[in-house]
Amino acid sequence: MPSRTSPRRIASGALFERGRAQTETNGYWVGDDAGWLITLSDLTLLLLCFLALLHVNDAKKKALSPQAPLAAPAIPLESPFPSVLPGGPNAEQWKELHRDIRQFVASLGMSRDITIESAPDEILLSLKDTIPFASGKAELRSAALPVLEKVATIALNQPTLNLEISGHADNRPIANEVYPSNWELSAARASRVARYLVEKGVHPSRLAVQGYASHKPRRPNSNVGDRMANRRVEIRLYYSPDAKAVEPQEGDGASR
Fold this sequence. Notes:
15% strand, elongated, 6 helices, alpha+beta, two-stranded antiparallel sheet, CATH 3.30.1330.60, single chain, 7 strands, disordered C terminus, 40% helix
């Protein structure tokens, strides 16, 4: 029995096919809604405006903020430093000064009692304690005066030299009415040498005094000879860039 189709359904199908033929051309829907393109363009434009405003605002902040200080140049951890500083005696002058002191000591017949050591920027005189002092005392003996006067003359002629005077003892304890220990004795001896140099015109600011007692021996305190070598007074002459030629002033202790 043939099927019966509703006239209304047939009319609907015809309208659909006619509309399809009118709106589709070469595979494209010419009647399709393109409003989304307008929306996308608006969003893109708003985004570009937002980025431009953000850039301008950031530029204004940088212009108003104080300029950051420049970084300091890096300081090298190590730098070469000459053994003889500019302005002080050079190596040849040190050798000549060492030779002059050695010849002077030899002329006094004290080469066995005074040791002279030299480095590129210092000279060290080591006097056996029996030359400048009697046992257990800190009063200068006349035998040491020519040597100390020679040191004072060198210091006055070389205003860039400083002097370090140190007293040393052996490990035998001392206890008397004046010096209760080797600390006091060694310090007093070094101070007495320094005071003599001041009396000869060396400014006190160029002098350093130290008493080491028996704590910096040259030899082990194992026998009489070693203990004699450890009882000494040392005078170290060294170059100082801060040293200045200054005259003794009243109250420095210089003889007048």
